[in-house]
Write a structure and sequence with these properties.
two-stranded antiparallel sheet; alpha+beta
Length: 100
């Protein structure tokens, strides 16, 4: 974090662009101005997270979902890209969208 703050940018791999892109430290500065309790809304939320995610630990999503009863976490046997579980993802989304 200190290196990122000093250098102002951190190269982060962007899966959509398939290449590293610079992420400004302003991202962190902006995020700090919001109080988490003010951001919580009981909106039905679905998180699909790979158990073998090499970028974001699965525990981060577990912790997030545990504190929010309106969040449904689905753990998938995949990595960060989730490219090998697309059929399961679409089935899960369809079921989630059918909820009353």
């Amino acid at each position: 974090m200190q290196h990122w703050q000093k250098e102002r940018y951190l190269m982060v791999y962007h899966y959509g662009e398939n290449k590293p892109l610079p992420l400004s430290y302003d991202f962190v500065t902006d995020a700090r101005q919001y109080k988490e309790e003010a951001l919580q809304r009981p909106i039905p939320t679905l998180i699909l997270h790979g158990r073998n995610d090499e970028v974001i630990p699965i525990q981060a999503s577990r912790d997030f979902a545990q504190q929010r009863p309106w969040v449904e976490l689905i753990e998938l046997d995949s990595d960060h890209g989730l490219g090998d579980v697309m059929t399961e993802i679409w089935q899960t989304i369809q079921l989630f969208c059918q909820l009353p």
